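Throughout our pipeline, every protein is held as a single compact record rather than as scattered files. The remainder of this section carries one protein's record, kept here as part of the documentation.

===
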Amino acid sequence: MTTKETKELLARSVAFVNEHRDAYLRSGGRSGHIIDCTAVGARGYLPSLLLQTIGRKSGKTNIVPLLYGCFAGEWLVVGSRGGAPEHPAWFLNLQSRPEVHFQIATQAFRGSWRIPVGEERDQAWAYVTNMFPSYAEYQKRTERQIPVVLLRPIEETPVFEPLTEA
């Protein structure tokens, strides 16, 4: 893939993710929870959640849609960034705070998060790469270990509001 093709793909992906997030937010979670992911190498329709982080440098609220799975009683998300050499911003922002806010369909939560290690991480990785095989390909593209994050709700909160430009 040429540099130009990579940039074009990234631009299309960013537009797709932003449109998906905005539709999810506008609908209060009634739309956007289940998404057709065949265009990005997944097996058809998969669930997505919204993860809210606070910029560690900007202090700005960010909301990103992420594919998720249920693993051992917790919700699992992956910081793949398509196999880029750097972690995604949402993961770096998450690391700067002990709690997280996330929305699944029409329910939002304040919760805790953690990174599984050892055998638990291996099992979680096997689970998520079965759900979304592209993650295994992404891992081959980078030297960093792609993070697996487990989310656990603490309490229900109001659903997220659509983002406004400041």
